[in-house]
Amino acid sequence: MNLKVNKDKCIGCGQCVSICDKVFDFDDDNLAKVIEKPVPEEYQEESTSAMENCPTGAIEEE
């Protein structure tokens, strides 16, 4: 599973980072970024939850 963050949609709320900080972090603009590509199997459930709970739908599967 490969995820990406659409920077045009991300508002930097941090929901994804709080759900799965092993896969998501903040970039220099305080927007989310994916730090694990591909997402390790042990974090796929958490990262899917982060994607589903993103308020702006900025996290997308590649």
Features:
globular; 4 strands; alpha+beta; 24% helix; two-stranded antiparallel ribbon; 2 helices; 62 residues; Alpha-Beta Plaits
Walk me through this protein's architecture:
- The chain is α+β, with helices and mostly antiparallel strands and 62 residues long.
- It has one domain (3-61): Alpha-Beta Plaits (2-Layer Sandwich).
- Helix content is 24%, strand content 19%.
- It is built from 2 helices and 4 strands, in the order E-H-E-E-H-E.
- The protein has helices at residues 15-19, 44-53; strands at residues 3-5, 24-26, 32-34, 59-61.
- The radius of gyration is 10 Å and the shape is globular.
Query: How many DSSP-defined strands?
Result: 4
What strand order characterises the main sheet?
1-4
Main beta sheet strand tally, sense and closure:
2 strands, antiparallel
Number of domains: 1
* Terminal residue distance: 8 Å
| Top-tier CATH class | Alpha Beta
In short:
24% of the residues lie in helices and 19% in strands.
List the helices and strands and how they pair.
Blueprint (H helix, E strand, L loop, with lengths): L2 E3 L9 H5 L4 E3 L5 E3 L9 H10 L5 E3 L1
Antiparallel strand pairs: 1-4, 2-3
